[in-house]
Amino acid sequence: MRPYKTVIFIFSVIALLAVVCVFFPREGVKIGDVTLKFPSLSDMISDGATDSVAAMPEVSAEDLLAQQLAETQRKEEESQYLDFFNTSDIRFYMPDDDLTFFDDLFAAFDAADSTHVGIVHYGDSQLECDRITKTIRQMLQDSVGGMGPGLLPLVQTVSSMTEGQSINGAPATASVFAPEGGGAGGKYGPMGQVAFLDGTAIMSVWPRGKTAKRSNKFSRVTVLAENPSAELSVTCHGETKTLDPGSGLRRVVFTFADSLERVSLTLTGTANIYGVVFDGKHGVQMDNVPMRGCSGTVFTLISSYLLRDYFKYQNVKLVILQYGGNSVPYISGQKSAHTYADQIRRQIRHVQELAPDAKVLFIGPSDMSTRIDGEWRTYPKLPLVVDSLRAAANDMGAAYWDLYKVMGGYNSMAQWCESSPLLAGSDHIHFTPRGAERVGNLFCKSLKLYYDYYHWRKNK
Hints:
By secondary structure, the protein is α+β, with helices and mostly antiparallel strands. It has helices spanning 3-23, 41-44, 47-55, 61-87, 103-110, 133-144, 304-313, 334-354, 382-395, 403-407, 412-418, 433-459, and strands spanning 29-31, 34-36, 92-93, 116-123, 150-152, 163-168, 172-175, 193-207, 218-227, 232-236, 239-243, 246-260, 263-279, 283-290, 316-322, 359-363, 369-372, 375-378, 399-401. The chain folds into three domains: 1-46; 88-146 and 283-460, SGNH hydrolase (Rossmann fold); 147-281, Jelly Rolls, CATH 2.60.120.1360.
């Protein structure tokens, strides 16, 4: 029924009752042993009711109109938010459609001027060179505060677009995700790798690009190490600190009154070095952890006590897992897709157990093309992998971002490879720097809308 018809109906009923009040006999109508009575109009408008109405604060027509307009505006705003959350290709798929999923993360953002907020972005080779991550990091640090590129390996094997990095006296390394990895005795750090220091190594870091951004500046440098049998000495910016032998994830921390853009560290001794953190005391620190060739099934192989300690100490509030692309070519059908999804379930559960204060967000594979009848087309089983991973993430209480759909869905990779400027490479798998920036911007656009909705709910 239309609103105006509802109003007419209500007033018609009221008018009818008023007529009955006027003409119904005051002594009532006797039917057998029963006397029916109806209140008079004066009874309905009694002194008590008048007093009650008089006691109510007077609301002017202007105030009433303003309240109605405000309520209408709030409903329209909420409708716009909900429309995005229900229909947009760049939305997050929340477990149980829970739009409060990120509330703890957003509360931490609001307190970032006095609190350190950690985010770790794990993924496959799509993240190499700090692609995608650097765009998200820059947006967050510009909007809520923070500085520095976050956690870097002692030995960098792939150049970053954010930081230049070199190492003299490079120690041997091992990683949990590389086929040739090994020799770490299971002691892989929070990046899934370790550098075996035995002697002296000099690590240098400097900003890339013409203009230094927040992520190029830092006021704190933290060496993550484990040295059970020997002393470790670290010199940074003219200051030397020594770490006595001990087990567990240990730290050598240097803090500076003014932010730096470049620095060299000299490490001497025998120790496992799990990385170096470049950040500030407050604000967002976002780590970029690419794992070339990895399908995301390695977290149960990383030392749990090292990973748990890192998540807790860095106050990690969000762990992003971006995987699936390396498994797509090997998925033959529903059974293998579900098997892979079950493996991801175990990894998500493991991360959740080690980082109980963090939310987990899984980013599925992008569109990927292969040659079919001489043409570049989407891998036939890729949509099946996407659906399986989204179900697995949501079942485990993690959010999901559908990068395949974000790109445009079926055969979108071919379009990205033909765009101007190019958004993807000739392998029809990896993004170009511009393509990675576009993905990062779309992620930020979506996250910002959920963040705005968080504030809208708090203030309505």
